[in-house]
Amino acid sequence: MDVLAVLSLVIAGGALGWSIRTYRASIKLNRRDLFLSLHEQLSRPDRMRGRSILREEITSVPDAEAIRQSRPGDYELVMSAIIMLDILGLYVKKNYVRKDLVLEEWGWLYGRCFDHGQHVINERQWYGPDRRTRAPWINFVELGKEASERYP
To answer: Judging by beta carbons within 10 Å of its beta carbon (0-12, 13-18, 19+), is residue 139 exposed, middle or buried?
Structure first.
């Protein structure tokens, strides 16, 4: 091999190393931006209101049914909060965001919402194995169990 070939390999190796470093940095920034975007979505007043109704007013299946029937606007806020937590659970499952960060920032609240959210899910039992439909909000349930155990 001549000097020019070796020099070309060294330059190509350096370029590859730089590309890998840049790629990893962009992944890290994208994950951070996604986490911040989720934080923004979870901090919206309507989502906060939905979580408050969920935690403070729904302690049983009849409570969930009563709110759905008598206060559809509030029920929509509750559903929006659960759906957003389900999306957060999906992003954790797919490793789009780090579970440890999510649980550190939102785990205590997620666990409390999960305990009350189960009543909403049970009230909406339109699914089942005989109907061949998946249970709604699977990701909410999966992350909720862990958050509830970690933050009782």
So the answer is: middle
Write out the residue range of the structural domain in which residue 143 sits. 32-150
Round to whole Å and give the CA distance between 106 and 39.
9
Scored b (16 or more CB within 10 A) or e, 68-90 reads beeeeebbebbbbbbebbbbbbb
SS3 (DSSP) at 84: helix
Can you tell me the distance from the alpha carbon of 141 to that of 27, in angstroms, rounded to the nearest whole number? Answer: 28
DSSP state, residue 43:
T
**Token digits for 69?**
């029937």
Give this prediction's pTM: 0.80
Question: Do 117 and 82 contact (CB within 8 A), yes or no?
Answer: yes
Looking at the 3D structure of the chain, how many domains does it have?
Answer: 1
Q: Looking at residue 59, what is its pLDDT?
A: 96
Mean pLDDT, rounded, for 42-49: 95
Q: Half-sphere exposure of residue 125, counting CA atoms within 13 Å on the CB side?
A: 8
Residue 9 covered by a domain: no
